[in-house]
Amino acid sequence: MADPLDSDPILEFSNVALGYGDYTVLRDIDLNVRRGQVVAMMGGSGSGKTTLLRGATGQIRPQRGTIRAFGKNVAEASGEGLRELRQRMGVLFQQGALFTDLNVFENVAFPLREHTRVSESQIMERVLGKLDAVGLRAAAHLNISEISGGMARRVALARAIVLEPELLLYDEPFAGLDPISLGITAQLIRKLTDTLGCASVLITHDVVESFAIADRVYMVGQGRLIASGTPKDLSESQDAYVRQFLRGEPDGPIAFHYPATPAFDKWLDQHTGRS
Ligand SMILES: Nc1ncnc2c1ncn2[C@@H]1O[C@H](COP(=O)(O)OP(=O)(O)OP(=O)(O)O)[C@@H](O)[C@H]1O
């Protein structure tokens, strides 16, 4: 197999700043994700992980720099171009919002019915194939109210991969899972990345599970990229932020207090009459 490092990046951030209005959440971000890789984006609460994901999908435009997906500038894509880019990405949100009025099979079939014109027999084959990949082939007929939270996560995963995306983006895939479901989900993400030959980006707090499957880890904090490398590189890092995060220590450079912003100062002025 070709070395994935020789291939063009599927997702690439070059000197990117991202934020909302005139508030910059993250600056100077350089990262890339290649075919076959599982990449974990880590950082404390509010450090900007979801903001990175929004940048990758084109939901927000960078304040500076360039974000490319499949070689195309995401910020310049609109209309049909953006739809096409998004079809090549499977996004799995934390609340995998399944349609409760559809059964498991129809939930997974939904993107195929919506975006393709494949025949019913092909839909049957593809949907059962994807449900099989997540271990839920025999749950196809169940209603959403009849499945557990962990199973719902896997149904959402089957739905995210049914169009065979080249890039899978997961927002907190391990949040709220019991230890067994957590391990299963992590191994599933690794296996699907390998068998589909896609790339997976995980936004996560979970050090143990993501380090077990990631090829590369990016850690954000204090408004920038704090560290990047293999899980081993990060485990051996002497950086105080990285060490505090990995060890879950309460004391260190990761601030407990949410930082004051110009928007907060303005709000406070308006509400206290402070000038
Ligand atoms: N739509 C928005 N408008 C303005 N500010 C926002 C918006 N969404 C997020 N932010 C701010 O951006 C910063 C980063 O938020 P983000 O959701 O990216 O963090 P996160 O690392 O994903 O956090 P968590 O792990 O707690 O989900 C926070 O300060 C947040 O208040």
Automatic annotation (TrEMBL):
Stored CDD domains: ABC_Org_Solvent_Resistant
SUPFAM superfamilies according to UniProt: P-loop containing nucleoside triphosphate hydrolases (SSF52540)
Name used for this protein in its record: ABC transporter ATP-binding protein
PANTHER family: INTERMEMBRANE PHOSPHOLIPID TRANSPORT SYSTEM ATP-BINDING PROTEIN MLAF, PROTEIN TRIGALACTOSYLDIACYLGLYCEROL 3, CHLOROPLASTIC
SMART domains: AAA
Domain ABC transporter: 11-247
The entry's keywords: ATP-binding, Cell membrane, Membrane, Nucleotide-binding, Transport
InterPro entries linked to this entry: AAA+_ATPase (IPR003593), ABC_transporter-like_ATP-bd (IPR003439), ABC_transporter-like_CS (IPR017871), P-loop_NTPase (IPR027417)
Classification via Gene3D superfamilies: P-loop containing nucleotide triphosphate hydrolases
Organism encoding this protein: Parapusillimonas granuli
Pfam family, one: ABC_tran
Molecular-function GO term, any one: ATP hydrolysis activity
